[in-house]
């Protein structure tokens, strides 16, 4: 079974109500006939409005983060997976490198968030990836294996039947430097191989996205690689024309 590609936009902390509405209007106004899924992850305060903007369209909605706590509670400033689900989200990003580095999210916390996302019926998009220093020390495979392994150990391989992994080399995020298709493919294949050892069927259907300066100019060659099943796009997702061009590249 071919894997249905996913092109996901991570807006990070960008935009305004009016600007976000206009961006979504451009996306919903154009529905390229591409057999792939389109997902946008606006800032949390805009999700309630975004649910109405995408209503009736092909666009899926996702969160950028969630609390590791399930249910309600005294966690000022946090929001739960159930709240995201309540707002019409289907997906949520967990373990983005910015969360890991600026907010000190450990592998254990990321695993707890992954589990909390699934408990709320959301598909977690688990982000993994090495820093430049780690790549230069030839530690890429080890770092990615540790990050994926922490979630595999905590959640079990079965959990990956309804999850997505995004390989995002930290040195490529927002820098304009992209991993070459061969560099990305090597890591994607190693991630899939880790899963194959535990469950070949789940491994074969798992979507593994690439993220890190994906643009219209490089999307085609990245998405042509065997184990690259889509993209997690930051900067270029803030521009409807660029995001749509990347989406069209998913047609192959
Ligand atoms: P970028 O961000 O496309 O701006 O490099 C990707 C991401 O951080 O998800």
Give a quick summary of the entry:
Helix content is 42%, strand content 17%. It is α/β, with parallel strands linked by helices. The longest helix is centred in the middle third of the chain and has 16 residues, at 140-155.
Q: What is the top-level CATH class?
A: Alpha Beta
Helix vs. strand class: alpha/beta
Name of the CATH superfamily: Aldolase class I
Shape: globular
Question: What strand order characterises the main sheet?
Answer: 1-2-3-4-5-6-7-8
Order of helices and strands: EHEHEHEHHEHHEHHEHEH
| CATH architecture heading | Alpha-Beta Barrel
- Strand elements, count: 8
Low-confidence stretches: none
N→C terminal distance: 16 Å
Share in helix? 40-55%
Distinct small-molecule ligands in the complex: 2-phosphoglycolic acid
Number of domains: 1
Break the fold down into its secondary structure elements and pairings:
Blueprint: E1 5-10, H1 17-29, E2 36-41, H2 47-54, E3 59-63, H3 81-86, E4 89-94, H4 97-102, H5 107-119, E5 123-128, H6 132-136, H7 140-155, E6 164-167, H8 181-196, H9 200-205, E7 207-211, H10 216-223, E8 230-233, H11 240-249
Parallel strand pairs: 1-2, 1-8, 2-3, 3-4, 4-5, 5-6, 6-7, 7-8
Helix pairs in contact: 1-2, 1-11, 5-7, 7-8, 10-11
2-phosphoglycolic acid is lined by residues 10, 168, 173-174, 211-214, 232-236.
């Amino acid at each position: 079974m071919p894997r249905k590609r996913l092109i996901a936009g991570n807006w990070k902390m960008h935009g305004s109500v009016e600007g976000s509405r206009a961006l979504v209007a451009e996306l919903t106004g154009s529905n390229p006939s591409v057999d792939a899924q389109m997902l946008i992850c606006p800032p949390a305060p805009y999700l309630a409005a975004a649910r109405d903007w995408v209503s009736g369209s092909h666009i899926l909605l996702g969160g950028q983060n969630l609390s590791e706590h399930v249910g309600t509670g005294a966690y000022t400033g946090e929001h739960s997976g159930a709240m995201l689900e309540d707002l019409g989200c289907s997906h949520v990003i967990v373990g983005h490198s910015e969360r890991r580095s600026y907010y000190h999210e450990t592998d254990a916390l990321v695993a707890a968030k992954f589990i909390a996302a699934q408990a709320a019926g959301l598909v977690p998009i688990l982000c993994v990836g090495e820093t430049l220093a780690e790549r230069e020390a030839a530690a890429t495979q080890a770092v990615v294996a540790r990050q994926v392994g922490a979630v595999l150990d905590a959640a079990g391989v079965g959990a990956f039947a309804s999850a997505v992994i995004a390989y995002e080399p930290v040195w490529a995020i927002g820098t304009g430097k992209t991993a070459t298709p061969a560099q990305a493919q090597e890591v994607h294949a190693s991630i899939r191989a880790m899963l194959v050892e535990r469950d070949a069927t789940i491994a074969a259907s798992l979507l593994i996205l690439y993220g890190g300066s994906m643009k219209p100019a490089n999307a085609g060659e990245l998405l042509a690689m065997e184990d690259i099943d889509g993209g997690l796009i930051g900067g270029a997702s803030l521009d409807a024309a660029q995001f749509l061009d990347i989406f069209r590249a998913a047609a192959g």
